[in-house]
Amino acid sequence: MRRKPRIPPAPLPQRDGVDPARVRLPHDGAWPTVRDHLVERLAAGPGVVDAMLREGRFVGADGVPLTAQAPYAPGAYVWFHRDVPPEVTVPFPLEVVHRDEHIVVVDKPHFLATMPRGSHVAQTALARLRAELGIPALGAAHRLDRLTAGLLLFTVRPEERGAYQGLFRDRRIHKEYEAVAAYDPAVPLPRTVRSHLVKERGIIAAYEVEGAEPNSESRVELVEHRAGLGRYRLTPHTGRTHQLRVHMNALGLPILGDPVYPVVTGPVPPDDFRRPLQLLARVLEFTDPVTGTAHRFVSGRTLGAWADHAAWAAR
């Protein structure tokens, strides 16, 4: 079996908690220079790569800036920092629930992405925590949707990250969510919802495939109801993208504030923090795979539509 090549450490430091981008030059390339490959691969626009080369922003594994004449070297690595456009600050704090030498557990607010991706880079839980806590090696063991609030588990040591990620992969962690949606006495609860979910890259909404083998499972329970609203406990047994949102919508109980289910609404301005999705990752419970400690963490957040629906709806 061919061993996966070892990736050398990044020669550039993080910037605002964000790692430098890494490019590996293909073995089967026929480009005369590194510059020629980067122009084709990055598709950054006329003159962008040349300007970055002149500024010394592309470096090799030794940290030395590459020139426009640097010969192409199959299998070599190139690092650089991407230009990040200004981001709207998410004006809500990340609450640290637990911190030790192995893990950090935080209570994430709505509207903050877990990790850098797309247009959300510096304004992400990972980047902000690295900067705020001074832990450059901090990594996410799992993720929450940007619109979902609640508990997130991060790892302090890169060599231990796989052990904590395995808790989620192998379903050795207990997760409970809380949601607010309409109350319908005609919907029998509690019940377990199973379906085959598909989430295609580039398509906002996931969808269910009728008749296909289920690949997702959620337990839905009604905790209490009043004035036409219900507060629900959701226990996912799998971790598909948008799973709880799709399953609640399939029951005819779409979660309040959802801009995708049942209908994809128009784009929301990045500084519009009104009426957040009423979904909260309330509980994380697991046995620590490194220390053997039994952990149970509970979010201290409340869902606005349940606490004061009139104020939430009037925003």
Secondary structure tally, helices: 7
H and E order: EHHEEEHEEHEEEEEEHEEHH
Give the total of beta strands. 14
Mean pLDDT, all residues: 93
Measured by DSSP, the beta-strand proportion falls in 25-35%
Give the termini distance in whole angstroms. 58 Å
Rg computed from alpha carbons, rounded to a whole number of angstroms: 23 Å
Low-confidence stretches: none
* Portion in helices: 10-25%
User: Based on CA inertia axes, which overall geometry fits?
Assistant: elongated
SS-based structural class?
A: alpha+beta
Largest sheet: 10 strands, mixed
Question: Can you describe what's shown?
Answer:
The protein is an alpha+beta fold and 315 residues long. The termini are far apart. It has helices spanning 34-42, 48-54, 125-133, 161-169, 243-250, 304-307, 309-314, and strands at 21-24, 77-80, 95-99, 103-108, 139-140, 149-155, 173-182, 191-195, 197-198, 207-208, 216-226, 229-236, 279-287, 294-298.
Summarize the structure.
This protein is α+β, with helices and mostly antiparallel strands. Helices cover 17% and strands 25% of the residues. It contains 7 helices and 14 strands.
